[in-house]
Amino acid sequence: MKEKKSGSKNFLVQGTILAAASIIAKIIGLVYRIPLNNILGDAGISYYSTANEIYSIMLMISSFSLPLAVSKLVSERLHRGEYRNAYRVFLCAVRFAVLAGGIAALFTYVFAGIITKYVMSFELAVHALRVLAPGIFICAIVGVFRGFFQGYSTMMPTAVSQVIEQIVNAVVSVVCAGIMFNYGMTLVNEGGDTLLAPAWGAAGGTFGTVASLTVAMFFMMFVYSAQKKNLNRQLRRDHSNHRESEYQIYRTLILTVLPIVLSTVVYNISNVADQGIFNKVLNGQGYTEEQYATIWGIYTGKFRVLMNVPLSLASCLAPSIVPSLTAAMQHRNREEAKNKIQLSIRFTMLLTIPCALGMAALGGPIIQLLFKNTEAGLPLAAGIMQAGALMIILYGLSTLTTGILQGLGKLQQPLIHSSIALVLHFILLYVLLTSANLNIYAVIYSNIFFAFVVCLLNAISIKRYLNYRQEFYRTFVVPTIVSMIMAAACVLSYKGINAIAGNSIATVFAILVGVIVYCIGLVSFRGITIEELASLPKGHVIIKFVRKLGLMK
Question: What is residue 374's predicted lDDT score, i.e. its pLDDT?
């Protein structure tokens, strides 16, 4: 394993590799969620999502921040030439992951019934949550390996493991969901609750997560073993005099992990809390569990699944920029740090803005294309897609800017910003649910407000610490104008083809038209430069193609 010197564009290349892998993984995830939705139904998907949300929070508390923390600590030591200390960070992090992940997994399994019944008002989600509990322990170990490689500024092991993980998850989830749904149906036929079938089906679906994480763990161990000789060679070349004790490393690790954990939990806990508040309010308004489970299932099983595809772009640039910014700050190169921030924000906006407007324009047709038996819930699903489009942009930007602050070493600021935004979010959510009676739209609007507040506070902090100002016209204005043109082209092409060929062909055609229109418009409006294209993997091929079309000199 070679230490990669961080050039001004290397983080973007690594981020693009991770983003490409993440998009592939998300597409696989989207594909398998289609048969999973068809097997479980909206109620079953609601149980499945509830278990996953609780699992995610427990993961964040125990070990979700480990990849970022290990990446940051390893990167710092590598840039000081302290290879032995970097390796000791890895060993200590593995022990920490085993302990923290094991405790969190045991706690989740033992208290699953209490959490699902009294916190989430979804008692039957207990089966899915208990199946997921071992995944917390396994994910902690996988996270340390990923953070170690990311500290060396190589995202390839993480990228490949994510794709393998998602393929295994897709196959096992669908197969086990079908098996366990049939088991639940036998219980229903014996006189049990009709919701037992989707509840047990959801438990089968969550087993795919545990199986896929196990495969990912063995893959990362294999990659580590393959790189062991190179690693040992580096350790022998380490002539630095400074040797950190295990106590120093554990202390540094905990002090690094703690603010990241708290900010991550605060940033993401709104999903779980939103569902708890939503269920309790609607229950008080006379809705049955099946009714509010169906509504929440449409929101999480359709809209959030689709939303997570473009959001994966921002979540990939964030971990790639942390070691890069850490290196720049270690060398006191503030200009390099500013350039990296500028590029990462620009590329995030170039990708999330068109995705948001495209989903708003084709929300209904995309739902019809991907999910069966949606006629009854189609108006609600399409309305959620349109109302929630802005969430894609704001969550993408807030996730990235949180990573930027962590890369700058300002670990407490994201926690403070997310806490302020969360309190305001809950107040707005309760008012919109009770006084305005907006139902699921209250959740959407309050989440948009939450992400906006985080973006605003993060931007103020970045400006204060680096005297940084984001270029506005090409970052925000051009992508928005071009995306509006693209959205109009999508709608017109869809309407023209739908009358002749039906929804499926019309939707695919409209998406292809949108991609072409956006790419041409972006280049024509000078929304992206040759230098920025060159910074991408295979950038010279892209430039050659664009020049052949006469769109760029």
Answer: 63
